[in-house]
Every structure is written in structure tokens, then in C-alpha cells.
Amino acid sequence: MVRLRVKVAAVACAFVLVPVVASQVMAADPPEHLGVGVPVANRTATAQVGDVGLSGARVVTTDLVDHTLWETSNNGTTWTATGGSNDTKPFQLEGSSLLSFQAGSAKVNGLTFPAADEVILGKGGKLVSHRTPNAATAEVYDVATKTKAADFAPPFAMSDSTVWKITEPGHLTGKDLTTGTVKTVLVASACTVGPDRVNGRWALLSGCNQVVDVKGPEAPRNLTVAADSQLGNGFTVQKTTDQDLLVTDLNDQGLGQRRYGPVRGTPASFRADGSGLAKIVYADPDSKPRVITLSWLTGDPQQRPDTVAPVLSSASAGDRIRDNTSLSFEWAFTDPQDPNSPATGVDSYDLRIQQRPNRTSPYGAWNQVPSWQGLKTTGASYTAPIGTDTCWQVRARDYAGNLSAWSTSYCSEVDGTAPSLVTLRIGDRVAVTAPVTFRWAYKDDTDVASYDVVYKVAAPGVALGKWIYPPTWQNTKITSISWTPRLGWDECFLVRSRDYLGNLSAWSPQICSVVPQDDRALTSAGSVTRSTSTLAFQGTTSILKANGAYLTKATEAGARIALVAIHGPGQGRVDVYHANIKIGTVSLAATTTARKVTYLPITPFRTGAVKIVSTSTAPATIDGIAFLRVNP
């Protein structure tokens, strides 16, 4: 929340005029009488109005007899029933908001409160307060959004979106419920502020009878008003004892006054213009509505040129990398307030974009799209192609024409990069334990949406087949697959990934796992003993006990052979043949006894018989053999 502290002179003897009351002014030097207001054509020749209200061209009256509400915006040419009444309390018209009382309810713009409670419409019609009898606080609602904005302990005043209250002796504090901005004005210590006592730049305070400029830097003035007085935007109006209206010019340091009338005596009804114009509506002695235009009022003392351009307070283009093609940019500007150069307010915005089609390309020239110039909104959207990086800049102008510089760039890229592989695992190339698990992981600039997985297999003795595309593995969210392998089968996998924009990665490298064939799958010849071992794959071994003993199996296929054997002290060595070609020699001698997988040299893919031949008199304990169709 932004806090501003503005000091305004509050000493009673500085810039203070002698307190003025209607009887004193008229006795000493009666203000000039300017006659009656302009009549508003009534609904019928015989109709009589009860209460009256005015906001710009909108005049609202009630029927003096049945209390129904009527309004006109064309000086009485046509009248329309509003559907409400003021059967319990006078209606309130501020800005575009009308607060009416009917059938026990107070209603304004869809908000409804018990009519018996205290319900007050703030100046400008943006806020309304509701307080149950004797409650410590009143609820303040935003009329446009119909939502509760805050709670305040009375007394306080509401003007536009700001609530004003004496927070401590000598401190008049206003909090803007829309922006959160807080401003404090120093006043006389005895001052209090009540409902309808702040309008525009002026606060009419009780207890000290002071008129204070809440926008500054005009000096405070002293003014005493009657209880039924009304505070307009730059003036007060009250009824005199001779049935006239006395208007006091608050913008005039001398508090100049004029009279109008006569007005109806009982019940009297008059209201300042709720839209902020220098006008008054009243019921004349014939209970007809009349409008007074206060053309003689002094101009706003602070109407000095606004020379300061708006300032960017916030902006966002959302995530730097987006997972969709719909881009958006939002911003907010403030128009700096200077007591000597009051802000005129932000009027409009210009927007431009700069783009590159991909990360390796330079940005193009700035493009000021015609429909984005002079915007009255604070946001824009755009659909960009995949991979495009879009940078936004915005500038603002105020009502005085001051134009800010272009903002810094706020960029947002539509993800055009496919996910990249982070992890690809399947355990050992030769799997001697079950189950086997294929795992993968990808990363992306946004988020990974799904994966495709394919596989191919080779049964013992044959080459790998074609890639298989299981339907449940396409466009899937799984990140691993586990299975119980089959002896002698070689199984290979590929995976790829896509993000939510459809960017699709290439297939991963092929990754395979083969399970050995057990020693029992091979035929023995010579001095061979079949045995068992807790260390062995499948629990069995074949021991070649003499030089020349061997194990063999016809028609095996592969590009690399892996021998599974028990290595240890006293173990011998073997030669391994495939398709009558010696692939290599494996020594099984080791200092400790353990199962070991030995990968023989890579060869061209071939098909033929395999033969494991002992080449020593020491025993050679064979556990199994695996054929890798591809390497790795």
C-alpha cells in the first residue's frame, strides 16, 4: 500500500475568514439574488414532486403522493418510472448510482440492505456504506462490483473511491479503496468529518467549521453552514430562513455567495449535482423541479497545466516460455500527482511488439499494430506461431497529452523446442535377474505431455524383428516398463516425447536387454558334469572337466557373445566359437569365486552353431551364454 503524507496548514489564524452564517451575511451585506432556476417540464401539468435529485442531465423526482420514482434525461420531454420509490427515506443520486428505499429495503445497483439501517451513497456514486443500528463499524461496498471493500468506524465520508476519516486529532486521512493509496491532510485538532462532507477537492469539517483542500495546496478556510446544507463539487448550498437557497463558492478565497429562489418550505428538497457539475436541483413552492446552473463560481484553483507523463507501475507478459500459442500482456500506469500540477489522469495507451521466429534468429523491427494505438484498455492478447518469441512495449498518455517513454520489453516465447532426453536406462545389457525395467525421463522448456514407446524382439537363434507399436504405449504418460524376461530373447526399445504444443523429439537411441540361455540349453560332449550352484544363473552349471570337452548348440544368431561362467581359484579356460569361427578365449581363473558375465569381441552379425571348448585340464564351470543381436 502506498502512503503519501501531505501537510496542509491548519492553524486557525492563518488564511482564516470570519465565520459566515446566512443570517449574518444577509444582515450585513445580502448576497446578490440571481432569481429562480430553469424549470424542468414535469410529468403532467398537475403532478407535484416530493424529493428531487440531479446527476448531469439526469433528473430524478418522486411523486409527492405515492412516492414513486420518475426520471428524465431530456429536460422533461419524456419521463420514465424507475421501478422504485422513496416511501421511507429520501432517495440518493450520485454519479450513475441511484439509492432508493422501498418496501423495507434500500437498493442500489443490485445491492440490497434493510431500509431501517443507515445506508449512505458516497459522493460520485462509487461507494455505499451500510451500518446496522448501534453497530461499531459500517460496511463499505464497491457499487460497481457489488463487493464489500472494507469496514470503517463512523463517522467518515466517501468521495469517489476514497474513504475519509479523522484517524487521530488533527489528521484527516483518505484511503483509496481501489488503489490502496493513503493520503493524510493536517487539519485543526477539533475537526470531525461526517457523511457527504467530502466532495472533489474540498472537505467540509465539523467541530472546527473548516473547509480543507484535500488535494492541496490551498489554505483552509473557515465556514459555518446549516445542518441541512449540501456539499457540491466546489460549493455549498443551504436554505435560508426566507426560503431562498444560499450558495457559497468554496473555490473563492473570499467564499463569495449568491442567492436563488424561493424554494418550497415544507418539505424542502434540494440537491447538489451528483455528477460533480456546478448545478443544483430544487423543488419550487409549486412542487415543480427547477435546475440552477452556477456559472459564476470561481474556477478550480488547481487547474494548472499537467506537465508530467504517466509512469508505468506494473506490467506482465506471463511466463517467459509458454505452453500455448495465446499470448497476453497486461500493464498499469499511474499519473503522478503534484500539488502544483495536479494529474489529469491516464487517457490511453500505445502498444508495440517485436518478434523473432526462433531462438537463432534476430528480432525484427518494432510493429505498432494500428488497432493497438490509443487503447483504452490495460491488456492485449495475440496468437503467435509455435517457436515465436514476442516482446511487448507499452507507453501511456494522460489527458493533457503528456506521453511516457516506451516501457522496457516484456517477452514471451511460444515453446518451439521439443523435449530433450535426460535419462534412458534398462539395467545390464545381459540381464541375469528379473524383472527387467526400461526407464526414461525427458525435460522441456514448458512441460512434457506424453511419450511414444516401441520395441522389437528376437527369439533364440533369430535376428531382431520389426518395430512394434503397442497402442497403449503411444501418447502415454508412463515413464517405465517392467517385464519378466524370456531365456535367450533379446528385446530392444525406443522412446520419444512430445510437449503440450506438439513439439516432438527424435526417437531415443536404441536400448536393449538380453537374457542368457541356460547351460542346460547346450549339448555336452566329452568329460562334462552337470551340477548345481547357488551362484548360478537358473541354479545350474555345466563343468568342462578335461581339455577338449565342450558345450554346443546349433543355429544361434548375434553380433556379440556374452559368456556367463563361474570364475574362481582353480578354474580353467575356454575358447568360444560361432559359426566355426573362433571368437575369443576366456580365462575363468580368479582369486574369489563369483558369477561373471564376459563380453567377447564384437563381430559381424552371423548365424551358426556355438561351441564352448575347454582348453585346459582345469575345470571350467559354464553357467550360460547370451547372444546380443546389436551392440550395445
Domain count, please report it. 4
DSSP helix count?
1
Q: Give a quick account of the main beta sheet: strands, pairing sense, barrel closure.
A: 6 strands, antiparallel
- What is the radius of gyration computed over CA atoms, rounded to a whole number of angstroms? 46 Å
* C-alpha termini separation: 64 Å
Shape: rod-shaped
Number of beta-strand segments: 55
CATH topology of the largest domain: Methylamine Dehydrogenase, Chain H
Helix content: under 10%
CATH first level of the largest domain: which class?
A: Mainly Beta
Strand content: over 45%
Average pLDDT works out at 92
Keywords: Signal
Protein name: Fibronectin type-III domain-containing protein
Signal peptide: 1-27
Entry keywords:
Immunoglobulin-like; Methylamine Dehydrogenase, Chain H; five-stranded mixed beta sheet; disordered N terminus
Structure description:
With 632 residues, the protein is an all-beta fold. It has 4 domains: 3-293, Methylamine Dehydrogenase, Chain H, CATH 2.130.10; 311-414, Immunoglobulins (Immunoglobulin-like, Sandwich); 420-514, Immunoglobulin-like (Sandwich); 517-628, Galactose-binding domain-like (Jelly Rolls, Sandwich), CATH 2.60.120.260. The protein is built from 1 helix and 55 strands. β51 and β52 form a beta hairpin. The radius of gyration is 46 Å and the shape is rod-shaped. Residues 1-27 have low confidence and may be disordered. This is Fibronectin type-III domain-containing protein.
